[in-house]
Amino acid sequence: MNTLVVPEIDFPAGICHFVATPIGNLGDIGLRALGVLSAAEVVFAEDTRHTRRLLDHYGIRAPMVSYHDHNKSRVVPQIVDRLQAGQKVAVVSDAGMPCVSDPGYSLIKALQEANLTWTVIPGPSSTLAALVLSGFPTDRFLFVGYPPRKKGQRSTFLAKIMEEQGTVLILESCHRIQSTLELLAGIAPERPLAIAREITKLHEETLKGTASELQKTMTGSRLKGELVLVVKGLGRKKNREE
Questions:
Q1: Exposed (0-12), middle (13-18) or buried (19+): which is 143, by Cβ within 10 Å?
Q2: 242 touches 212 (CB < 8 A)
Q3: Which stretches in the chain have pLDDT values below 70?
Q4: Whose CA is closest to 95, among 131, 147, 47, 38?
Q5: Sequence ranges of the chain with CATH classification 3.40.1010.10
Q6: CATH 3.30.950.10 occupies which residues in the chain?
Q7: Do residues 53 and 88 lie in contact, with contact meaning Cβ atoms separated by under 8 Å?
């Protein structure tokens, strides 16, 4: 257990706190996030076993309830009820910012309908980290989440992305990255790409090259862990004409 002293904070009851958590390295948690999690009467988490490791690391004993895609229709009303009863509620995802590529947005809509207030405790983000690691322009970027699973739909999805002027950030499974790179090699064979993997972890690395070049390097142990695929944009129209 970490011996860091968790700060006491003002945690207004009845306000839902969305708390960003580490994407790999447990040391990336913010002091304010620790204070909120310590003061919470209940923490709603995607995978309570995963979040328990984080809480145990900092000696936090907050009770937890599972909240994920498969039970959101049942759990969201429970969260609303707790907030209306004046409880101190925190919501976390397995990693990074809640509501981004997780079931959190269903809760946001329910909070709006119930006229309840929410706030954000910011912190680690795999997409923003990957954007900077890629070395591609950061003044204009688009996050598109996970591409479709079906190959035909994914091909259409990727072809559309190749028309973007700004940098594009894509989450991809290590099980489908080779298939996605194969599609990109056919759609835009010369487009610069980057793959940021294991961000903040021991084996963090950012691989750069064209799709066909990355197909050759994304093998073996690299086909594990979390990946962010970054696509360099076309640039603004004025610049392309110049």
A1: middle
A2: no
A3: 1-5, 237-242
A4: 47
A5: 15-121
A6: 126-241
A7: no
55: tokens are: 């809480």
Q: Which residues of 94-116 are buried (b: 16+ CB within 10 A; e: fewer)?
A: bbbbbbbbbbbebbbebbeeeeb
Contact (CB, 8 A) for 31 and 84: no
Please write the tens of the pLDDT for every residue from 201-237.
Answer: 999 999 999 999 999 999 998 998 789 999 999 997 6
Nearest to 92, CA basis, from 32, 145, 31, 44? 44
Q: Is 55 helix (H, G, I), strand (E, B) or coil?
A: helix
Do 124 and 23 contact (CB within 8 A), yes or no?
yes
Give all strands of the β-sheet with 64-66 in edge-to-edge order.
64-66, 42-45, 89-92, 15-19, 117-121
Q: Please state which CATH class domain 126-241 belongs to.
A: alpha beta
CATH superfamily for 15-121 is: Tetrapyrrole methylase, N-terminal domain (3.40.1010.10)
